[in-house]
Amino acid sequence: MSLMKSYVALLRAVNVGGTGKIAMSDLKTLCEAAGGEAVRTYIASGNLVFKSKQSERQIKAALEARLHKLIGKPVGVMVRTAAEMAKVAADNPFSSAPGNRVVAIFLDHAVPADALKGVTGQSSEEEVRLGKREIFVRYGDGMGHSKLRIPAAKEGTARNMNTVTKLADMARE
User: Fold this and answer.
1) 117 with 154, same domain?
2) Are 68 and 104 contained in the same domain?
3) Cα separation of 45 and 41, whole Å?
4) Distances (CA, A) of 48 to 10, 31, 127
5) Domain around 9
6) Is 18's pLDDT higher than 70?
7) Are 76 and 106 part of one and the same domain?
8) Are 80 and 8 in contact (CB under 8 A)?
9) Mean pLDDT of the chain
10) Same domain, 102 and 168
11) Is 161 within 8 Å of 103 (Cβ atoms)?
């Protein structure tokens, strides 16, 4: 029998820019139907914190299938254990910068060694560092004005470090 683990699930392109709108109450219900317990959401941008006996891969598949059925198009889901989320927060290479100016772009797989190949639009105030399954970006004036494009991050989903830290704290509770 597998043990109950705490997880964080991050939905890609939900409630952002008018695409993939979903009420957080519906998201909570959907996660419970996928086997999540003690489900909580955090801000209306597709963040779930819950417990499950399932593996990361099982959770991802169940959530993506249910989201596709609900929204009518594929929605990517990145899943991390509570420990992995805490490590992302702790490994922030730009910890001296304000948390709202640094993002972790979560990927489903290990960051490729050539992830910085093809990066365009990087300003002198922007820095990029590679993590295990995350790409960290420090923005100068914020993400909204940035022209930075990272091809390796295309299928990922970004959260600022304030959100990453909050989700890690919630998952640890």
Assistant:
1) yes
2) no
3) 9
4) 7, 8, 28
5) 5-84
6) no
7) no
8) yes
9) 91
10) yes
11) yes
Domain total of the chain: 2
Using the 3D structure, point to which of 65, 84, 103 is the last residue of a domain: 84
Q: What does the pLDDT look like over 122-147, one tens digit per residue?
A: 999 999 999 999 999 999 877 888 99
Question: 123-146 burial string, b = 16+ CB within 10 Å, else e?
Answer: eeebbbbbbebbbbbbbeeeeeeb
What count of residues does the chain have? 173
Give the number of other CB atoms < 10 A from CB of residue 75.
21
pTM: 0.92
Count of C-beta atoms within a 10 Å radius of residue 161: 22
Q: In DSSP terms, which residues pair with 65 in a beta bridge?
A: none
pLDDT in tens, 26-36: 889 999 999 99
d(CA 48, CA 39): 7
Co-location of 101 and 166 in the same domain = yes
Half-sphere exposure of 38 (CA within 13 A, CB side): 14
The CA distance from 87 to 165, in Å, is 10
